[in-house]
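Sanity check

After download, print the first record. It should look like this:
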Amino acid sequence: MRLIFLGPPGVGKGTQAKQICEHYKIIHLSTGEILRKEIFDKSLVGNEAKTYIDNGNLVPDRLILGIIENRLKENDTQQGYLLDGFPRTISQAEGFQKITLQLKHRLNGVISLTANEEELIKRLIKRGKDSGRSDESPEIIRHRQKVYWTQTAPLLEYYTQEKILKKVDGLGNITDITKRILETIS
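Expected structure tokens:
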């Protein structure tokens, strides 16, 4: 099983990824974690990515794609994976498609977890208060939502055209959402 999870911040992608990965016995691939590992391992790609990060810049698509390609060549991904946080743009999705063709990986689905934007903002504000996370102040939450809708949401149309997008309501209790995702996949 090879999946991509899309959805705005706060919709529960990480929580659901854990549930789905346990169910299918596949690994959860977070681009942030992969990037940190490449930097820690001092790989060529990781070293170059670090120069962008250290200067407060976004890591270019070609580097992100190189990191993803390297990671997907590892043995533990051969039984399947769930990508969370990637792709973020149409160009990344197109690059990912080339990688999967080269590696002979077939994507089984793109799950878009959906929710009312105001409900997500309320959820994130509450989570920020409970956890003390600095990236969950009301101003930053609204900015993250805006970034998602302008940069990442176009992927919804891209994957709809590819006939692989499946929308799942991301509001409710964890078990019910997991059940909806599993029903949608099968």
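If your output differs, re-run the checksum step. Summary of this record's structure: Residues 117-131 form the longest helix (15 residues).
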